[in-house]
UniProtKB/TrEMBL annotation:
Lineage of the species this protein comes from: Bacteria, Bacillati, Bacillota, Bacilli, Bacillales
Residues in EAL domain copies: 24-275
Protein name: Diguanylate cyclase (GGDEF) domain-containing protein
Amino acid sequence: QAKKLGKNRYYCFDENLNEQLQRRMTLEIDLEKAISENQLFLVFQPIHCLNSGNIDKFEALLRWKHPRLGMISPNEFITIAEDTGQINKIGKWVLRKACKETKKLQQNGLNGIGVAVNVSSRQLESSFITIVEEILEKTGLEAKYLELEITESIMQNIDTSVRMIQNFHELGVKIAIDDFGTGYSSLFLLRDLPIDTIKIDKAFIDEINDIKSQSIVKTIIDIGMNLDLRVVAEGIEHDWQKEALNDLQCDFGQGYFFSKPIPSDEIIMNWNRVF
Ligand code: C2E
Ligand code: MG
Ligand code: MG
Ligand code: MG
């Protein structure tokens, strides 16, 4: 009996692994034509000033509507794109689209609104700065309205990344550290790089009522104040989280409590309705 069970289990595991590999391969292949077949699009989530409630900027988030499998999470397909190198082409598309749509927002009443774009460390290769310059020029978006969100994973290739980020700083493009506190050596980044913003990971905001998480969040906010950085709390879902962050004097926040990420057309529609 035991032997039979064991065998079955092994069989199940094998099938599962096979399925996972299949899916990965399918996504990898289909991702190749996702851009040309218009399956990719961006949604935008507002980042609010917690004091005034005003929208400070939007974070652009990538979406993939697969023709057969439906919506695929960026957590799944970005990882694949990073492994295969497809992220360079996709990342370029994201940047161009994000800058273009933000320019359009600015022209439709959202004067001075900025955009934050996620960038994988794999994109930080030498040609990237030229690409960004070109996109800014072509879309007419001023550099100061663009913020690039990087993660602590850039530590893996720290020399290239440091140079790159200094170049962006000179261009006037802003830099944020995303998912702050979940990676490693983040304090080195704050010391050695011209960073503008740190984004406290949702994991800490989820547990903001827990005494330890609260101390960590408070400490990050203090570091931000002392180093003259903007601090954004990610993943605010409830009023009590916003209140707690206000008490801790956190400047900015983002999350479903304010809004889910939405297409830029919808932002323009809502904006014109309110004002
Ligand atoms: P991220 O940059 O940390 O983005 C925040 C994620 O949290 C987004 O998930 C957003 O939709 C989600 N979120 C925001 N507020 C809430 C909330 O209140 N509750 C919950 N449960 N979730 C919230 P999304 O859009 O699925 O993106 C996941 C990750 O995929 C991003 O994490 C980012 O690392 C990556 N990603 C997304 N778009 C791009 C892109 O264009 N390029 C690159 N390189 N990575 C991207
Ligand atoms: Mg982000
Ligand atoms: Mg994040
Ligand atoms: Mg993330």
